[in-house]
Amino acid sequence: MRIASFVRIAVLALASSAAPVSAAMVVQGYEAKKHDRFYSGVDKAFIGQAFDWSGVGNSNGASGNGQWATMISPSYFVTASHFAPGGSVTFYEGNNSAGVSRTYTIATTQILAGSDLTLGKLTAPIPASHQIAKYALADAPTVDPYVNQVIYNYAVPSRVGRNVIDEFGTANIAGRPSVGYAFDYDDANLGDPGLGADETFLQGGDSGGPSFMAQNGVLLLTGIHSGIGDTNGPLVPGGLISFDTFVTYYKPQIIAAMAGSGEALSLVAIPEPSALGLVAGIALLAMRRVYRRATVIS
């Protein structure tokens, strides 16, 4: 994959001795009936109802106050290295917390070199009868098709909002594994054009949760939450950003780690933008910001 031009992100780590503090992901115009996967009221109007979220699990179940795991095959999942689950993780077949849940034991975890991405493996493959989703990765030879794409962010407490990918870069965390190659998305408060009131800003406890692009009604895994920060630039002066490790960048390591398991990583191609769209995207990025500071969000 060709690496596009990027900005280096300066990251400040939280005190390593501090226990992670979970807080609900901020969503502009938040409504429980609209943004909470497990909302149980009769007026439920969940923005993610058309998609299958069953492959997103948490070590603390539906509360979403533990560590995250997102399945990419019957045995393997990905998460953030600095906030990875251990022991077991629980998934729900539907969007009802009182419905069928499945808890699986974690056998091994492996940090992917140069990243904040961990590949985990369960003790046994999830049976097809359990109806737990396995997500393909959004795949393209350059980062151009990802820029300006709407993504669905899944975070504490099993909450879903949306944002727009702004740009790609590298990130480093002092005293912790590198986030490596990442993308960011801002919280402009006014909302991105065409996005509406669903715009997100990650919070503590969200590290390891997934971001998805949607194509033909199917979720494609794109990022794993790693950090937050603020900015100094003409478009969003003093604005807030969230950033994810870009999972597809690490597909060679994932494929190598899964070799011999009998399971394959699924990749779905996303189209390159038109020449006109690419020029518009470049013009927009030229207005974007310089990073001032950021921090991990576990």
How would you describe the overall organization of this protein?
By secondary structure, the chain is mostly beta strands. It has a domain at 7-51 and 135-296: Trypsin-like serine proteases (Thrombin, subunit H, Beta Barrel), CATH 2.40.10.10. Helix content is 8%, strand content 37%. The chain is built from three helices and 19 strands. The protein has helices at 32-35, 251-258, 275-286, and strands at 7-11, 26-27, 56-58, 68-71, 76-80, 88-92, 101-111, 117-122, 137-139, 150-155, 159-164, 167-173, 180-187, 200-201, 210-215, 218-232, 240-246, 267-269, 290-296. The strands form four sheets. Strands 1, 10, 11, 12, 13, 15, 16, 17 and 19 form a nine-stranded mixed β-sheet that branches. The protein has a six-stranded antiparallel β-sheet with strand order 3-4-5-8-7-6, with helices on one face. Strands 2-14 form a two-stranded antiparallel sheet. A hairpin with an 8-residue loop joins strand 6 and strand 7. The radius of gyration is 18 Å and the shape is globular. The two termini are 29 Å apart. Mean pLDDT is 82; it is low at 1-19, 233-237 and 276-294.
Task: Set down the secondary structure blueprint.
Blueprint: E1 7-11, E2 26-27, H1 32-35, E3 56-58, E4 68-71, E5 76-80, E6 88-92, E7 101-111, E8 117-122, E9 137-139, E10 150-155, E11 159-164, E12 167-173, E13 180-187, E14 200-201, E15 210-215, E16 218-232, E17 240-246, H2 251-258, E18 267-269, H3 275-286, E19 290-296
Parallel strand pairs: 1-12, 9-18
Antiparallel strand pairs: 2-14, 3-4, 4-5, 5-8, 6-7, 7-8, 10-11, 10-15, 12-13, 13-17, 15-16, 16-17, 16-19
